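Supplementary notes for students who missed Thursday's class. We covered one full example, reproduced here. Read the sequence, then the structure, then the short commentary at the end.
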Amino acid sequence: MPRSRFAAVLALAVLAGTLTFAPAARANGNFVFFPTNDSYVSAGSPNSNFDNQPVLAVAANPTRISYLKFAVTGLLDPVIHARLRIHVSAIPDAGSRTGGAVYRSGTSWLETTLTYANRPALTGAPLGTYGRVAANTWYDVEVTAAVVNNGIVSFGISSADANGAYYSNRESGSTTAPQLLVETGIPGTGENVLLAAGDIASCDRDNDEQTARILDREPGTVAALGDVVYETGTPAEFTNCYGPTWGRHKARTRPAVGNHEYLTANAAGYFGYFGPQAGPPSQGWYSYDMPAGGWHIIVLNSNCSKVGGCQVGSPQERWLRADLAANPARCTLAYWHHPIFSSGDRERPELLPLFRALYEADVEILLSGHAHQYERFAPQTPNRVDDPMQGIRNFVVGTGGRSLQPDFGTIVPNSEVRNGTTYGVLKLTLVPGIYQWRFLPVANQTFTESGAGTCH
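Structure (token representation):
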């Protein structure tokens, strides 16, 4: 697989006009749609129209249901994700302990004539639910199942709680009006998707249950990026703390070992729980393929002192170079626990020989955790030089559920996106010659970011 820079440039020049590279320009489309109509109805005044009100209302006793209609246009590629984003009004008592459930609804209504008596029915199971909502704050809910293609789509938001919520409507202006956020691009299947996060489970917290719910709805291979259970990686912690949440997806998990696992001698709890999926217990490194996308995946052990070091000539470094030579896939991704680049003050420079081996073999992506934050880097060299032609794109995804670190230290070179306040999972869709990423936040969180790239 190693290729010179000249070869990489030549390959891009030859293939630039072929179908292999044509999708890259359209691999991600991000669309924002504002309502064409929105209003609410009230069972207390079944024949009244509330289009003249400055808010959308949801509540029970009397029942109040809000309706929103969007015209989705301009989509060229398959819909990957769609989110209904709403802003809780800043008026007094706008927040609620229950923000309401989102349903599909009929589309043949207008805000100027909508009443409780003529309201369209809410159909099917809830698409998603807004939990506790606070005034003057944005919230998202996943509505992908309702947005299939271009066309008119309508939603109803209903609450069974008398403690209702009030949302900004479209007349409030573009800064607070509801939004339908639609992302299009490469279709993901269980055979070409990698779902990654580290720093995950703890028995005294439930954030890992929230991130596990993302896995519940997303097909794909789960890349657990180390420190998968706290505090010391004992067998009991794996059974009682990790097992009930991310452990639901153990059969499709390919983990990397973290430092907390080694707080139990020889990481025996980790290797005992995952078995052959974690690689040989004396090593913790292994590789596998994702044939549907044509990608080779390498899992390494960043606990260098536990496995004979990571220096040039170390057992792991020799194995890595041999694995790269034996698997000359065009597209390769690697992951381990500790970051080599991070603005969260947790860099591990002793990993540089392994990173250099990956760079010299034209590896596309490196994932890590350990810093309890999300950070994305531009493709770069081992010396932190921006290198769009051969550089490795790094992601730090320590957002699996244990805790978060909102404060970043000195922003290091080539850092492009950072967030330290949102739990979530990184979704990577891997197809021949192309990769696409999207950070999936837990329910009721709005931070996300996405993009795409081509293989070297």
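Commentary. The two ends are 10 Å apart (CA to CA). The first helix runs from residue 5 to 15. If anything here is unclear, bring it to office hours.
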